Amino acid sequence: MNVRRHRISGIAVTAVTALGLGTLSACSDDSAGAVGTDKFDVVTSFYPLQYLAQQIGGEHVNATSLTEPGQEPHDLELSTKQTAELGEADALLYLKGLQPAVDKAVAQAGVDTTVDAASLTKLEDHGDVEHEHAGDEHSEEEEHGLDPHIWLDPVRYAQVASGVARAFEKADPDHAADYRKNADALAKKLADLNTRYANGLKDTRTKVFFTNHAAFGYLAERYGLTQEAVFGVDPESEPSPARIKQLQTEAKADGVTTVFYETLVSDKTAKTLARDAGLKTDVLDPIEGITEKSKGTDYIQVMQSNLAALRTALGAK
């Protein structure tokens, strides 16, 4: 079965700095704007990358995010104030191609330490991209279908973390030793998470899972699973009768029990499909932002919750 993506953008693979590093983004209680502190001010574009900046930077870094908690990062538009404040940051961390408004602002900011997370690991095409917003702007890479959801694979996420650490060490050499130490600690956490996923998903009744947001292509590839997403359907609309029938057939053939939905968009599509196909529903969080609905307070905790949900849905032994 083909992996289908919904509400996602592609990524440019070109490095932005001589180190070949890119920026990261985050959703947290900190929004972009708190720059000009006595710390190393890092502005990120959304939560997964802000998490890396905080973990690696520790007490030396003030990491803020352009994406507010609960805001869908793909739809982000920047205010004039946010755009102006980017130029005051010590470092910018973003993921090129995911948020066109951020790409434009970063290009104009003129910040020396500008890191593109897309350049720190290998991006792949996980299937045809369906764009439901005719007015959206998309990069050439996005149209080619490169999947941006690299942070949902702990191994690729660790590669990005390593690149971010190198960028911090170069830009703020006085604290390089601490950045290296923190990065090593994070690498161990991510290696442990990878081991938990590999062991937890090794022996399951089925390898196929349904989701309304095809964000889990890298995760599926890493652990030998197949992601099947509702194709070309807006989260606020219902899937077509033909698509429902197709998924009903696939569910029976592959032993699928559950349709996953996420925390930042409506669960209407998933529940409609589940009702018509006689399936259960559950949350599989793409971790694009942490809110009160998240099953955990940080990346590691939510990834562990995702693993538990996958084990249940796939019939882990």
Protein architecture, described:
By secondary structure, the protein is of the alpha/beta class. β7 (208-211), α7 and β8 form a beta-alpha-beta unit. The strands form three sheets. The chain has a four-stranded parallel sheet, with helices on both faces. A four-stranded parallel sheet has the order 8-7-9-10, sandwiched between helices. It starts with a strand and ends with a helix. The chain has helices spanning 47-57, 80-86, 100-109, 140-143, 154-171, 176-200, 217-222, 241-254, 268-277, 299-314; strands at 5-6, 40-44, 61-65, 91-94, 113-116, 129-130, 208-211, 226-229, 258-261, 280-283. It contains ten helices and ten strands. The longest helix has 25 residues, at 176-200. Residues 1-33 and 128-143 have low confidence and may be disordered.
What's the helix and strand layout?
Elements: E1 5-6, E2 40-44, H1 47-57, E3 61-65, H2 80-86, E4 91-94, H3 100-109, E5 113-116, E6 129-130, H4 140-143, H5 154-171, H6 176-200, E7 208-211, H7 217-222, E8 226-229, H8 241-254, E9 258-261, H9 268-277, E10 280-283, H10 299-314
Parallel strand pairs: 1-6, 2-3, 2-4, 4-5, 7-8, 7-9, 9-10
Helix pairs in contact: 1-5, 1-6, 5-6, 6-10
